[in-house]
Amino acid sequence: MNQGGANTSLIKRINRQMLVRLSFFALVMFGFGYAMVPYYKKFCEATGINNLLQPDRAAVNTQVDKSRWVTLEFDANTHGMPWSFAPVQRSVRVHPGEMTQVEFEIKNNGANTLVGQAIPSYGPKHGAAFVKKLECFCFKQQVLAAGESRQMPVQFVIDAALPASVTTLTMSYTFFEVPAADKKNAAAVPLEKAG
Amino acid sequence: MSTATHDATHGHGHGDAHGHDHDHAHDHKPTGAMRWIGSTNHKDIGTMYLWFSFTMFLVGGVMALIIRAELFQPGLQIVKPEFFNSMTTYHGLIMVFGAIMPAFVGFANWLIPMQIGAPDMAFPRMNNLSFWLLPPAAMLLVAAQFAPGGGAGVGWTMYAPLTTQAGPAMDLTIFAVHVLGMSSIMGSINIITTILNMRAPGMTLMKMPLFCWTWLITAYLLVASMPVLAGAVTMTLTDRHFGTNFFNAAGGGDPVLYQHIFWFFGHPEVYIIAIPAFGVISQIIPAFSRKPLFGYASMVYATASIAILSFLVWAHHMYTVGMPVETQLYFMYATTLIAIPTGVKVFNWVATMWKGSLTFETPMLFALGFLFLFSLGGFTGLVLSITPVDVQIHDTYYVVAHFHYVMVAGALFSAFGGIYFWLPKWTGRMYDETLGKWHFWLSLIFFNVTFFVQHFLGLAGMPRRVPDYALQFAEFNAISSVGAFGFGLSQLLFLYIVIKCITSGEKAQDRQWEGADSLEWTHLPSPPPYHSFVTPPALDAKGAHAGH
Hints:
Distance between the termini of chain A: 64 Å
Strand content of chain A: 25-35%
Strand content of chain B: under 5%
Distance between the termini of chain B: 22 Å
Number of strands of chain A: 9
Largest sheet of chain B: none
Oligomer: heterodimer
Radius of gyration of chain A: 26 Å
Number of helices of chain B: 19
Shape of chain A: elongated
Largest interface: A-B, 41 and 49 residues
Largest sheet of chain A: 5 strands, mixed
Structural class of chain B: mainly alpha
Order of helices and strands of chain B: HHHHHHHHHHHHHHHHHHH
Number of helices of chain A: 1
Strand order of the largest sheet of chain A: 3-1-9-5-7
Radius of gyration of chain B: 23 Å
Shape of chain B: globular
């Protein structure tokens, strides 16, 4: 395939063409990795999985199931932030379908204003889908000045469709510091390094 | 044919595979260190890839032995947990990216130009760069051990959010992955271009040896998947240092997203390792069965099907992250589907041997070991593909056993078989057959001692990546550790065999295996001249080689 000079330069040309095409393909695939980010977000929105930071739509006409009790336990953590964070009640007993509100307390023990975002998680995992939250402090970022404290509500309904085998549900919240780039009005505030 | 005789007169009858008497006007062969540093010769670069890979194999192997030494007994005896985690991480990264992948790229460099009748790779200088990116990347991985806080014990999969919080070693690891990825992508572009544009007249695609086919498909997999991994680790890097929130839940990101992106690369990666191994086996089995490969065309199509399916099954690595049931079902069915083209390949190899005139030299022994143990690893893979089963044994030693059956007994055994098969061609000298057989049997036995018991450990619930374990796992772990040290030491025998072959092996024949029928055996002497097929070989009407 490469006898003679003319042929050699032809081969070189088509080789170079292929190099350009394949490099372009590699670049496109690099972009594809990034394209998975918005696609994943849309997919989660459409399927309703991973809905952590928006209110749920409570089922309409939910009947309160007076025949059984569910114990809800609350857990609160901070991740590398000088905040103290705890539920006002450790646990409550409710009927499925009943509207319930609980309070959490938070205090900034650090010397600087900090912005935190709470991320919820549930146990057991298959119970998570039945916790319908209408109002939660985790739906927005919390800004606390040094020494500031506040009480924050969570309002929820346990879906009456909750399997009877689940008698205890744990709701756990962890506060993470919001990185500088995502803060609003935080430009002038010196940040205390999370440690 | 004229080329072969022409080259043969310039060849050399002694061990130096790369003599110095064949200077072409356009390509002087430098001597000394510069020959290797600046080499654009596919044979030199292939040799460097293979030695680099063996070095990394020893480094990764020592890490594995540290892991097994710690796991010999329950409790913490030898290393700290952080160091243990770092060992599991870098053992995986080094074996996958430093040992197995470069080994097969070494085969590709040596063999593809000779098998398709091309004078060299399409882009010799880029080929040089592809290789020389590897040592700096390996140094970054080793240097990460000495970063403040020690190596990043995050697992070779580098899952967020652990990686976004890990110490500075993580940055070195991310850069290493970037560099390794660039090397792979350039190598793949080179291989694709060589195979598509540089074939000798008459060497049609469907007449190529299957090894070239498997590499063509693998190279496409690499170009398509490696950039996705580069994207994933770049996101990790920007999350760590530049305030992005791809994987940070507090900023609106999602750590599970990392797993999706990683495994979109990660599952094709599994076949990037396995498919060239299939290619090597497809050369060895027909040669020692003295029959053409059974079902050549179906082998090509099966390989391509595996490659396409590999992009559609990634989430079977993450059944436990909380996906909807429909999604799990899809990934389960798609995954089990892969068993069909894989089965086609296994049955074709068996059918190739059927009524063949079999002999059992070392390469054939490794090929048979591959066939048996890879199938076993495939079966445990099938077990793991079933969602409800996987949920039970996810992240246990059952998974560890499964992927070591396909990576070690699959890819590594195939590489060993390939090295024994082509050593006579590459060096012009024969290896010691008795020692080769010892190497095979020791590797086979110790491999199974190491990993077979891990199936039981996993089924009993022993989690992976943990330096300590409950007392009831003690016996199987002790057995596994003994096997691991035996396996590790057996590989020193392999090093001895190769060195002995190069320095004092008997002279090999041009066509050492009479059943081998690809161009490097039929048209070139052993060792082949430094520049082979400078003018393309004349192929007869059938083509020099065809699987049928």
